[in-house]
């Protein structure tokens, strides 16, 4: 793990929303990073962070003292805000076109942006990374910098929260060549930026539609499993994935029920061994937010459960269980990941740590 001379200055774009709040809590005592600027919409600008958030604080942990009196900046004043940090996390709530533009505007000030948003996930030279699975995609940043005309500014993104409970398993099993996958995700309400207090109709309810989520669940793993060609990420052709995404009355934690066909026929013991031994650069570098054990396999028939397992490895690990042979597919299993930690802000913080360790993010 890197030893930094002093903490890097970090800013949060879209700091008042639910993911912005999660970034604030994760960075409050971070060993490498110190929050120096919080930016949000013009209606929040000029207020203290505590005033701007008001009664909309959605985290279970209290608001950190060190941000309460920080004056929120206007996110649209790019040059002014960018001057106050070495890099930014982005969780802005705008249209996709607006997000693409503002993130590029910040990058062009020579300030790296690590985004939680989906707007740049399919920009060909923007890496979309799960740090344990495809860190080599960060190499495309050099091509992106040429396009943007920057020397240190760039954008990197993390993928959708819905894929975190099954894409790591597919990555662990790569040598057995999974080629066809059926997945149904049961997604928590915090994925919509809600709590039960502000979404009472979700209590004792299931909604069988989450806008745009099924396409992300089917396509984003293929981009993660893809490769770089001529300065762009080219998505993998397999496995073919079909999905249904369902909103369920759970606060945090996306569960996935998954069926897989393999070209090579692994045993149950081989599959479990691959899950338990799967590790990547975050574990090798011992990054501050990295889970020691990325994937745990649970033997009990009734696991993983949200109440018991969502906070595994501080919400940064993935829990897999119920691996068994299937009568139509080869194997089936159930996966669980914390959607606002591993699946959102935490995953972005881990990306930033890896980018820092590898020298992409440095002090200005």
UniProtKB/TrEMBL annotation:
It comes from the Bacteria. Pfam families: Semialdhyde_dh, Semialdhyde_dhC. InterPro entries: ASADH-related, Asp_semi-ald_DH_pep-lack, NAD(P)-bd_dom_sf, Semialdehyde_DH_NAD-bd, Semialdhyde_DH_dimer_dom. SUPFAM superfamilies: Glyceraldehyde-3-phosphate dehydrogenase-like, C-terminal domain, NAD(P)-binding Rossmann-fold domains. CDD domains: ASADH_C_arch_fung_like (cd18130), ScASADH_like_N (cd02315). One of its GO terms (molecular function) is NAD binding. GO terms for biological process: methionine biosynthetic process; threonine biosynthetic process. Keywords: NADP, Oxidoreductase. The keyword Hydrolase does not apply. The active site is at residues 161, 254. Residues 9-141 form the Semialdehyde dehydrogenase NAD-binding domain. Belongs to the aspartate-semialdehyde dehydrogenase family. PANTHER family: ASPARTATE-SEMIALDEHYDE DEHYDROGENASE. This is Aspartate-semialdehyde dehydrogenase.
């Amino acid at each position: 793990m890197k030893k930094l001379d002093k903490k890097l200055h970090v800013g949060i774009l879209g700091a008042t929303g639910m993911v912005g709040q999660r970034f604030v809590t994760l960075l409050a005592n971070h060993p490498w990073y110190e929050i120096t600027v919080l930016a949000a919409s013009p209606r929040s600008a000029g207020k203290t962070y505590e005033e701007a958030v008001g009664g909309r604080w959605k985290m279970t942990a209290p608001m950190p003292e060190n941000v309460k009196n920080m004056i929120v900046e206007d996110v649209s004043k790019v040059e002014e805000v960018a001057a106050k940090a070495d890099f930014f996390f982005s969780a802005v709530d705008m249209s996709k076109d607006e997000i693409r533009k503002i993130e590029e505007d910040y990058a062009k000030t020579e300030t790296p942006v690590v985004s939680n948003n989906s707007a740049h996930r399919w920009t060909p030279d923007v890496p979309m990374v799960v740090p344990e699975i495809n860190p080599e995609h960060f190499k495309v940043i050099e091509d992106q910098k040429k396009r943007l005309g920057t020397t240190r500014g760039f954008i990197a993104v993390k993928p959708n929260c819905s894929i975190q409970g099954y894409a790591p398993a597919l990555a662990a099993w790569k040598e057995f060549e999974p080629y066809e996958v059926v997945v149904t995700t049961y997604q928590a309400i915090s994925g919509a930026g809600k709590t039960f207090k502000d979404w009472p109709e979700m209590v004792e309810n299931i909604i069988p539609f989450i806008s745009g989520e099924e396409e992300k669940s089917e396509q984003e793993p293929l981009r993660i499993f893809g490769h770089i060609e001529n300065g762009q990420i080219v998505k993998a052709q397999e496995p073919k994935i079909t999905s249904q995404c369902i909103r369920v009355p759970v606060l945090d934690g996306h569960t996935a029920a998954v069926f897989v066909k393999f070209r090579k026929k692994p045993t149950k013991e081989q599959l479990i061994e691959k899950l338990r031994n799967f590790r990547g650069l975050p574990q090798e570098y011992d990054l501050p937010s990295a889970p020691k054990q990325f994937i745990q396999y649970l033997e009990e028939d009734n696991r993983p459960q949200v109440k018991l397992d969502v906070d595994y490895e501080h919400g940064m690990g993935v829990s897999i269980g119920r691996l068994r042979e299937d009568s139509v597919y080869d194997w089936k299993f159930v996966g669980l990941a914390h959607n606002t930690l591993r699946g959102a802000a935490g995953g972005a913080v881990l990306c930033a740590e890896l980018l820092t360790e590898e020298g992409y993010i440095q002090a200005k």
